[in-house]
Amino acid sequence: MSSNISVRNLWRRNNLTSPPKAALSGAQIRERALRLVFLLEAASVVPVLIVALLVGSLALLADWCTYLNSLLISLLAWLTLRRIARDSKAHYDYGLGKFESFSALIASGLLMLSMLAVLVFSVWRIMHPVSLATPVTWLGVGQCLIELGFNVWLWRRNRRIARLEYSPLMETQWRSNRNDFLQNVGIMAALLLTLFLKEYSWHVYIDPLVAIVIALYVIASYTGIFQKSLNDLLDKTLDESLQLRIVKQLAHHYDDYESFHAVRSRRAGGTIFIDIELGFGNDKTMKEVNQAIERMTQTLEQDVPGSRVRIIVRPPSAQEQLA
Length: 323
Hints:
Blueprint: H1 4-13, H2 26-55, H3 58-87, H4 97-127, H5 137-164, H6 168-196, H7 206-233, H8 240-252, E1 259-268, E2 271-279, H9 286-303, E3 307-313, H10 318-322
Parallel strand pairs: 2-3
Antiparallel strand pairs: 1-2
Helix pairs in contact: 2-3, 2-5, 3-4, 3-6, 3-7, 4-7, 5-6, 6-7, 8-9
């Protein structure tokens, strides 16, 4: 955020725990959130695998795959934000926004690939069904109950943090926690149905079918994040709504400049970069030009949150000089 005061107010407005007296920056808040996620997932990945192997559930195995993938994702995301929070300007004048977008691209891509593997194994399990109606399946039910509590808490917490300031990594993370929660609900329902409907021969298909639904849902959820992160890396121009804001502000300051030449915009992580090329009349002094630039920069950055506006002064062309 632009100031420590605004960060503190946003924390209070979103019902988060108040930061310490020295208010944290947005990057520091995100770094601590992802560090907590990493530690919780690191402590859970081995128990989840043991229960999945004991039960023999493909849905639980898919859950473990997402845990392992989320562990790698959260580690990468945490290290990325740690670097951003501590060294965002020391060696990179434009910050590490692209690195953040790249990390989100890798994270969402890996998760979708793992879900494709789950789809393949699920189809194989449908062709070669196995009954899970054994007493040890209750271990899987208990594990899902514990995971439900953690994931719903992380989902709500990280979504609130993501609202403080746009971040591809935090957007990826809270969606990951939401998907984990929904997965737990689906897996627990599948295991309970398998136990209570074991007298029916078709109960063997419940587990792989639930795994297929989970995989398709995860792929659909992360396609948008993957596409948006890719667009950021390719410097795709801003959405039409944001471009209209820029045009509106240029029209508002029409009398401050002589000619319009070009506007370029791109997003890098949570920062929007806007470059505008303008020409100013020969009758204006440098002081007047600088004052006009300051006015336009201020109003544009207020109207487009998280933006950094740079106005480039273009000298008049030969035709303009003759006119």
